[in-house]
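Hi Y.,

Following your request, here is the sequence exactly as I used it, all 578 residues.
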Amino acid sequence: MKMEFNKREKIIIAYISMFIFLISIVLPPYGLLSQASSSNTNVSIYYERYYSSYQNLNGISILPRTGGSTVTYTTESAMSNLTSNVGGAMQITLNKTVYVLTFSPDVSTIKGYVSIYASPNMRLNIHTNIPDLVRVIVNSSGTSTLVWSGFNASDISTYAYINGSGIVYLEFANGSEISVISQDVKVGHNYTLTYSLMLYTLQSIKVSLSEQVQISVPINLPKRYQPINFSTSINGQMFMANEENISPTLSYFNGTLVASLVWKGEGIGFVQNGMLGHEKADFETVEFYGINGTVLGYVHLISYNGTENRLLTSKGTNVYFGEEKILLVHGVKALESMKSYGTVYINGKNVIVLVGNNGQVSSTAKVDLAHEVSINSSESGVLVYLNLNGSVRVVVVTLNNSTINVSLVKPLGIQPTIVTINGTQYEAQRVVLNHSGNIVFNVSLILNGKVAVYKQVSGSIVSLNSTNYFVINKTLVVYDDPSTVYYIVYYNMSIAPSTTQVSSTTSTAQVTSTTSTQIPSTSQNSALTVFHNANVSNVPITPSSSSEKAPITTPELAIIGIIIVIIVGALLIFTKRK
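Below is the corresponding structure, written out as tokens. Let me know if you'd prefer a different format.
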């Protein structure tokens, strides 16, 4: 009996092992890439990491000690760039240097200049003749990040993301303290200014440590509107954060405003090495979106600053840390200029939509289709199909920055018919709807050639503005503030007049119940094109709303099937046991 039980137990374990193995094959690793094809995305990565610790060896005093001070200054720096595909990691060399700085009690007045240029491509160039520069810090949009640390540099070229404008801080060693110069900057502008600083004379410089270590930096893309888990090590302490605070906004990218998502989080580093209390590091990620919602790239920032006071030595240490990773996707374009702006919610997520020249559209969601339409005789806009994780939402963004929700509806019936225009009969389709508000509906075309769309209003027939319908993959897409009956007329398919035609010379015609309907002459739509179409295969033909659940994917079906197999197998085992 015991042997039989052991045999059954082994069978159960085998089922579980098979389940785990199949799960590992079916499910991709969480959070690695934004989409399955991301591994083929070619990108440029620019990375920098700086750590700066300025420690007064003379101890803490109520009155600051400046002259005759001895300072241990520790700096770490890593800077690299790479062109690669998304996925994997880049290996970078981190340089660490420890200086012992001794200052005399003598004070000198130093007059010099500082030249600053923040370029649109996220480079910061600084030139100065003021000595003992140890740090450069950039504050933009409320976030301060260390973008350079070293000692006594006169020319600096580093990476720095500035969201249109910000403040650049230059910090200089000055005895037991730090002297600071600040300058407001705008991207694309040059600044050259003169300054006068009172600095203690540096008597001696000694390098007590110089070493290199290798670090690994992942090459990945965030997932839209999904939390990001991040961690980093700062001076031996691990900081971890879950960036769940996700906000859509406008951000500067290469000198222009684009749609973006901003993730923000706060990581906690706990007590280590005798330091008082815990520490916090700020994490921020900004992903930029271009035409049709394509990913332009992102900037990831980690920043920390504070003062460490050690229990046993009573030595004060001023610390800054900054990490910046810039990833730029090749072959994509940003919206050159913004003409109008709209917002919409998709599954509870706030999505922004930007309209540029020629009806081009950018968004924090993917744009499946964009087409310029006429709302009324005095107003126009752009019809936009938005796709967020499989949920489709259709809107019209007007030139006055309003957003009109559009329902994607399915016709109640579509029947072939014949219409008469100026004595000539044409093949047509009669479309019946029952919906209110702004709508979009689709009709599969049964004939090739030019088409025009008419609608029935109060018993009369009027033509639609030709900008409000277009053809995609032999499917006619119609946008309107709806009627109940529409006619799709095929102008190149004329036939001989029938005896049932109804003649009319007015601008409208009465609809009859015969198989032939008289329609007045009108300008034919000779060019039906989609202005900006991101992915025509994704344009839905049947109604869809953001409240609908996404269809079950193949991996999910596989998992369900595996679970069923396990349950059935377990039931069979225990049934035989009885």
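DSSP finds two helices and 33 strands in the chain.

Thanks again,
Q.
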